[in-house]
Design goal:
about 525 residues; three-stranded antiparallel sheet
Length: about 525
């Protein structure tokens, strides 16, 4: 390396040097440094001399020579050396070498993953272990958690998580909350991103927020097990708006914690895309909004029924099978699951079965569904046994068909209790079978709690009444009837049916619609 500087002397008393810096040679123990300095004539006149230095270091020798020079117009310094290959006690790798080494190590890790069946294509740009041994440690740890190669391929970014820095702290925190270790495998399959999370920054604030929604501390682990994705939500995003909307339509504030515990997926539902369209569609069927709120309190999972994929097609299927449109609100209110199951195959199967055992007409099948929508999920064996029981009691096929159409519940009651009730009907009440054909709901009343006490009261009064007059009323109403001298025709009541208003009865814990956190004593 040579550095040149050209300067001049502006005053005789000042020295500026035009030099060619010495070239130094390090070779074993020999150092040669030759320097020749020449000064301009004007400086020479002032000083009267020029000095030449020669220094040689080899075997601890040295020489210095000073001679006069009469004419020199410039000053030069020249240092020369032999060019040899440099050496040092250590060498630092260049950036290019370091980059090549990283690429080589990553290639080894990728090859290792491919041998195991893991596709590393999505790992480009992700910080990975530099050695195969560390990667093996991560994979072994994931295997201990129950995750398979297929699970890792579903989310290969999990390989970027350090066992000590990421995985263990997160799993320890979940365990302290009460999340069962037996659920870790399914937990991580559903939400492996949790292993990237910070306990303090990401997880703890979400848990605190859930507690603020009146989810009991003991229920927090169950909520996380059911819906681990909730740990990735923003606190003031979807979670807060979904809860506020439900309270706005009439869901009791005190019920919010229970609703979210039963079905925490609500926290991830968008109001405008999911919840609101669902509620408005049910309103369009004729179900009052407050009744919908009560249904959500009892069965919050109905919000997960896909509106376009399941609910609307199921409603169309009900109409196709001779269910009256006016009966749709009652059907959904009685059995909300009917709009969320794969309905059409069940309707086909149940209609075919009932036709085969009691010769039911297709038109009557719609009536049966209206009165007991749960029949679409009733087991075939149960229906066959109940139909055989009724036939064994002496009812004709036509009578059995009439009884089923009038009260489909007789196909689903406890057979042993039905037998006891029928024995009492025959032996104690000594009524004709036609009374049961006219009022098959007799089997739905409790023998000890209702049938026997009322039958004895009526017998004591000497009344002759129908089974409907005897049973189809409240206890208070029945006491009023016992004071009558005669049985009035207007007192004859129709078959019991579902009352939509029962869903909207005032609640003792009713509260304002605007959501706000309840105090501890109010919640208790």
């Amino acid at each position: 390396m040579k550095i040149r500087s050209c300067v001049g002397i502006t005053k005789p008393s000042l020295l500026l040097v035009h030099s060619e810096l010495p070239a130094l040679t390090f070779h074993k123990t020999k150092l040669t440094w030759t320097s020749t300095l020449r000064f301009p004539s004007n400086y020479e006149r002032a000083s009267g001399s020029a000095t030449r230095f020669h220094c040689s270091v080899a075997g601890r020798t040295g020489a210095s020579t000073s001679v006069s020079s009469s004419s020199s117009k410039s000053t030069t310094v020249h240092l020369s050396r032999k060019q040899v290959k440099p050496s040092s006690l250590y060498s630092r790798p260049s950036l290019s070498n370091m980059k090549k080494e990283r690429i080589a190590n990553r290639a080894k890790v990728y090859e290792f993953l491919r041998v195991l069946g893991i596709i590393p294509d999505e790992l480009d740009g992700l910080e990975l272990p530099v050695t195969v041994e560390v990667m093996q440690e991560r994979i072994d740890f994931l295997h201990k958690l129950g995750l398979t190669i297929e699970d890792i391929n579903n989310y290969p970014l999990v390989l970027g998580c350090s066992v000590k820095k990421n995985m263990i702290p997160v799993l320890d925190y979940l365990g302290k909350l009460g999340v069962r270790k037996s659920t870790f495998t399914e937990f991580l399959r559903r939400y492996p991103q949790v292993l990237h999370a910070s306990v303090v920054v990401d997880l703890a604030p979400v848990v605190k927020y859930l507690q603020g929604l009146d989810i009991k501390p003991n229920d927090i682990p169950r909520v996380l097990e059911k819906y681990p994705e909730v740990l990735g939500f923003k606190l003031e995003g979807t979670m807060s708006t979904s809860v506020a909307y439900l309270v706005g339509i009439g869901v009791s504030r005190r019920e919010v914690g229970g609703v979210l515990t039963k079905y925490p997926e609500i926290l991830g539902m968008r109001v405008g895309r999911v919840i609101k369209p669902f509620v408005e569609y049910l309103e369009g069927l004729g179900i009052p909004r407050l009744a919908i709120a009560r249904l959500i309190e009892k069965r919050p999972h109905i919000l997960g029924f896909g509106l376009e994929e399941r609910v609307k097609p199921n409603v169309a299927s009900l109409l196709e099978f001779n269910v009256r449109k006016a009966s749709l609100p009652s059907i959904v209110a009685q059995y909300p699951e009917i709009i969320g199951i794969d309905l059409k195959p069940k309707l086909l199967g149940q209609r075919s079965l009932i036709q085969s055992i009691i010769d039911l007409e297709p038109e009557d099948f719609g009536t049966v569904v209206e009165k007991m929508p749960q029949i679409v999920s009733l087991s075939n064996t149960s229906m066959v046994k109940h139909a055989d029981f009724l036939k064994g009691c002496g009812f004709s096929l036509q009578q059995v068909r009439s009884m089923v159409v009038e009260c489909p519940q007789i196909l689903a009651l406890n057979l042993d209790i039905m037998k006891l009730s029928f024995d009492y009907f025959q032996m104690e009440m000594q009524r004709p079978l036609d009374d049961l054909v006219a009022f098959p709901a007799f089997f739905t009343y409790g023998l000890e709690s209702t049938i026997k006490p009322r039958d004895k009261f009526v017998a004591k009064k000497g009344f002759k009444c129908s089974l409907s007059w005897l049973l189809n009323c409240s206890d208070e109403k029945f006491k009023e009837r016992l004071n009558y001298d005669t049985i009035e025709m207007e007192e004859m009541e129709t078959m019991p049916s579902f009352d939509m208003n029962s869903l909207m009865e005032p609640r003792s814990d009713e509260s304002d619609s605007d959501y706000e956190e309840d105090s501890d004593d109010e919640y208790a």
